[in-house]
Every structure is written in structure tokens, then in C-alpha cells.
Amino acid sequence: MPYADSAERRMIPTGYESLDHLLGGLERRNVSLVASRPSVGKSALALNVVHKITELGYNALYISLATPKEQLLNRLIASQTGLMLSKITIGDITQQERETILRTATELRRYRFVDAIESQVETLVQKIQYENRKQSLDLVVIDGIHRLDRKMAKWPITQALQHLKKVAYRTDSHIMMLGSVIERDVEQRNDGQPTLLDLWRNEDLAIATDVILLLSDKRDQERDALIIEVAQHINGPLGQVTLFYDKSIQRID
Q1: Among the listed residues 229, 221, 38, 61, the one whose alpha carbon sits nearest the alpha carbon of residue 135
Q2: What percent of the chain has a predicted confidence (pLDDT) above 70?
Q3: pTM here?
């Protein structure tokens, strides 16, 4: 079935079966927004997705507007080795653990991370196009969308997304934006689950993106659960997925 084969090639799996069942994967030439309050698990989710698809042979680029790439690599090392992130960060490790870390770090050198702190939209576009010329990209993660042009009086988030949508089309990739763009009021609710109405400038964001995932966390059966609400999906169904997030090692299962 040529059509089915073509449609399958258009989708990039996240590596999480329950999430892929809802989304069908991450569609090329589309832009998604992963939104939550701070420190819920946006970066951890994206890093785990990057690892899973890289192991499947896809090419991913992770651009961080907030966190230095050394810290991101430490998070990946923790999730892959099972060593606590806090121990890796402060160097409280045994010689055997050090050797494991060095071996894992060597394996992760093929991952593509770019520091882009304080970058403007135009700079991001140039970085993506440059990296795509070096090796065709399947997924681009931009971590820290809320920091874009933050010194300007009017936050141009929709303009940024429109520019990036064009880049996703030109590079035939999927662009995943991460942002702490949920209003603080959601923390006062019993369930803590955000909705589209809790997004900063929600109408503009909804228009400018194809998929919106809203994250929240809770304690479930003595484990930390990461709740992923597929709140907008222009080409498919909505729904909710629960994954388990071990924050100490940054692993999401």
C-alpha cells in the first residue's frame, strides 16, 4: 500500500507506545508545543524522546535557550546509566561509576546539542538550517520558548512559531517547542492539570501550533507520574497518557 507507506514515513515515533497511539507519531513539517509549569518534566520528556529516536536511526537536534549542553548531557547520562543525577553533578561517584559515565558520555557524542541562550528567532532559524545542511534532521527540539525575545515589551511567541513552521517545512522535520507557558493559577487547583485556557496568549498559541501537549505531575502508586494531556491535535484524536518519571535519574517510562 504505497499511501500507507508514505504516511508512515511522514511520522516520527516518540518511542512511547501509548503516546504514539494517540499522536500517530510526530508529523514532519509540523510544530508541537510541550507546555507546563516550571520543573514538571518537559526537558526530561524531550531528552528521553531524543534518545529513543536516535537509537532508531533518526537524526535529532536539541537547541537549549536555558540550560547549558553539559547539564543536558548529565541528564542523559543519568537516565542511561541509572546513576542519580545529583551524584553525577557533584562528582560523588566511585571509580567504577566514573568509568561507566565516561563510557556513556563517549557513546552520546553523536547526539547534537546546541547552546542558544539569549538567541533571537532569526538565530535559531540559521542554526537549524546550518545543522540540517550538515545532516538532514528529523526532529528539532527547542527548549525554553518562553525565553525568546523576553526583553521585548510584546512577547512575539506566535511570530517565532510562524517562522519555525516554515523551517520545519523546508527541512522536512518536526519541531518540538518546550516552554513554561502555563499561568501560575493552575497550581491552586486540586488536580493541577492545565487546560488550553491556562496557556499564555492561548488563542495565538493554538493557532500557531499543530499539536499541544500539556504536562502535569502527581504521585501515583508510590511513583511520580507524568500526565501528558494531548490538548490540541489538528490531525488526530485528543486524550491523556500517563508515564512514570523517576526524577532522580531523569528517566521516563
Answers
A1: 61
A2: 91
A3: 0.91
